[in-house]
Amino acid sequence: xxxxxxxxxxxxxxxxxxxxxxxxxxxxxxxxxxxxxxxxxxxxxxxxxxxxxxxxxxxxxxxxxxxxxxxxxxxxxxxxxxxxxxxxxxxxxxxxxxxxxxxxxxxxxxxxxxxxxxxxxxxxxxxxxxxxxxxxxxxxxxxxxxxxxxxxxxxxxxxxxxxxxxxxxxxxxxxxxxxxxxxxxxxxxxxxxxxxxxxxxxxxxxxxxxxxxxxxxxxxxxxxxxxxxxxxxxxxxxxxxxxxxxxxxxxxxxxxxxxxxxxxxxxxxxxxxxxxxxxxxxxxxxxxxxxxxxxxxxxxxxxxxxxxxxxxxxxxxxxxxxxxxxxxxxxxxxxxxxxxxxxxxxxxxxxxxxxxxxxxxxxxxxxxxxxxxxxxxxxxxxxxxxxxxxxxxxxxxxxxxxxxxxxxxxxxxxxxxxxxxxxxxxxxxxxxxxxxxxxxxxxxxxxxxxxxxxxxxxxxxxxxxxxxx
Length: 469
Hints:
The protein is of the alpha+beta class. It has 13 helices and eleven strands.
């Protein structure tokens, strides 16, 4: 078979000259868009000159890379060190590549933030009455909607389409936040403005538990909004809300300015107010042991419902009830996909809680055995505490099937030594997190089952009959 090369598009070659150095860039214009080409161009310039520079065309005129609409074949550009410290254009200073605008989802920071949002996290949602609810927020599988889980709202009410977003503000400046402020958490708060189903301008007012969550959620929403609206965005615009980003820039760490996002050590991302986190809490050993036991009991109560859900296929379940065209009843057919997202989120959360409870029990009982002589419990709590410890040991030995997880964890001896000072504090935080996740599982399970209620199914059948008529 003969291959015809006559119609193959011509590659474009650009030459860059700096002093006695020369570099060439070659690319196929059909394989790379203009924004990515500009980014590649700037990276090549930086490889030739490691200080501030101007870009000159063949005639010797200084050009602005952002104003170039097309790169012509065999073009020649000269790179010249800047003669003054005065910054005339952001694109040619020491931070120039941070201001090159490209497709939002091409930024590696955007991709990481979206993965984080797909997993979901517990955020505080401010209601119209000033009540704060802790809710699990998650990005839908198609990355088009933000979902949250609540027993009081169905799936159509508890989601926000990215394309309906009109603006986002940082801090507590929305009408609701101004009416019910919490200044201690202002730096962890943000608001999303949108038009609701009644076409009223509304806001979704959220507070994160730490700055790590805040950075990634705001970044991800910026990227997704720009992507859906067909806008391009620079790395600086994506990260300008991050305190750590500005800190790295001021230190001159341009190439490492976003590394803090990829290190999941939440305490490293706090602002100068080092105590600015909702996870700074402490309880007694009696409270912690009681919390562990409650989590074990909640886990077992949820197990049956989760096992039942695992066996169900959402769409096939409706087909078994002879409900053809079920999707016609949804305002958006994507909501069927969101039901599957709910199911997967429940199962993943349950599996993770099972693992974390097992590890917490393992560490707590080990710590208890090593420090039994140093443990002080109030006299009026001793009997109940001893009963709780018996039940926890029983759960560890036989009640929790997830105990097999421990055998899969390779714990080195030096890592296995527990710091007495910080152990109870860290365990208390972990127990609280598990408790929140178990409540989220219960909320999702209730809402998931209600979506398959026989009464609802019968109503759907009636509506479909009317549609058929």
